[in-house]
Amino acid sequence: MENARNKPSFGIALLTVLFLFVIIIAQVLVAGSPDIHMTLVFSIAFAVLLLLMTGTKWSSIEEGVMHGCKIATVPMMILMFIGMLIPTLIAAGTIPSLIYYGLKIINPSVFLLTAAVVCSVSSMCTGSSWTTGGTFGVAFMGISMGLGIPPALTAGAVISGAVIGDKLSPLSDSTNLAAGVCETNLFQHIKSMLYTTVPAFIISLVIYTVLGMKYKAAAIDTSAVDTILSGLDASFNVSPIYAMVSLIPLVVIVTLALKKVSALAAMVIASIVAMLVAMLAQGYGLMEMMSYMNYGFSIDTGVEAVDKLLNRGGIQAMMWTVSLGYLGLTYGGILEITGTLEALIDKMTTLTQNARNLVITHLLSSICINIISASQYVAIIIPGRMYLPAYKKLGIRMDVASRTCEDSGTVTSPLVPWGLCGVFFTGALGVGTLEYLPYAFLCYLTPIVAIAYAITGKFIWKEKNK
Fold this sequence. Notes:
Layout: H1 2-5, H2 10-31, H3 37-53, H4 58-91, H5 94-105, H6 111-126, H7 129-147, H8 151-168, H9 173-181, H10 186-212, H11 222-235, H12 240-246, H13 248-258, H14 263-281, H15 286-295, H16 304-310, H17 319-337, H18 340-346, H19 355-373, H20 376-393, H21 398-410, H22 420-429, H23 433-436, H24 441-456
Helix pairs in contact: 2-3, 2-18, 3-17, 4-7, 4-14, 4-15, 4-17, 4-22, 5-7, 5-11, 6-7, 6-8, 6-10, 7-8, 7-22, 8-10, 9-20, 9-21, 10-21, 10-24, 13-14, 17-22, 19-20, 19-21, 19-24, 20-21
């Protein structure tokens, strides 16, 4: 391949990446702004100029742009359709009913624990953290507002639960991808991941339980909760029978996921079903629903807290997030196709002489590539294939390699502000990545557990014939 022969030197690759890190850190620390669109534009421009000056052909850069946009297209379409799905679920009474009965039933002191557990079950059933975040996640954000629990803390619990499915569900694309990249059986791969993911999730649940204990029922402003309940009751039919009907779109989503229908198709079908439920059960008109799906749900209940909970969603509301996703993937695509990422990885092969160094190097490489490329898929594929010969040489089982791919590439994806998962959760939950980052415990506890295993040699299995 021409790109492989003409890949930049390690120094050029490092300079390209350092520029991104420096200006992002400067922006966050000096300007305090999470709006990094132009930061990415400047990083892309710097990378392109540097690569052109050091011999990379424009055709390779253009190919990288197209490659990044190709990776982004389906996820960004899903993101837009989730933007369309959210207002239909609100109009159908799905989210209002979940919030209404959630406020009535859920004890504030176990709310964070409940959010993490429910989202983990949903994501295991659907294999998608995005579907979970756009449905149950939005509902839990609404409930937390009524209970007076910080949105960033709730978002962290939602994400910790939602990521479980991305990691462990056989329906998950990243789970299947990691197993395929590392040439291991899917269910052997999932079994191997239990050793790192389950301890990290249990620790996360303990932390959420401890943090949640400060939010006692007696400390909640019941008058504020009663106001929200009254506002929901006055604006939607939330009687038990209608609440059951409103859950039909969620049943449709889970059913389609179990039947392995593409996420893109599932979002569209669920949106149409939710639209029909809204029209038949809640009395909305067709043109009204079309406007909501495009621009977001809009209602004036006379109760500010309820309006804040429900006035959200829409395709147009997701375009800020979509543009950020395209810019992030364009940057990553350029670095991948021009060989910049490979130049960085090549320097790390000297650190893979034993099992401990190999696993730790693999973990850190995947996390770095996740940050640089804005794609968990790239962070799984490139290090996974790069380090696979080292695993084989040391006689380490392939399910350790595949597990390491996900212990780094998958779980850290929601923590990258310009990455696919980061931009999604910011758009769906309404909380900035840097705000929820400290509370998404599973996302960084999992790599820590994996590093602990690498240091101690625990669960780093060897092939029997070695």
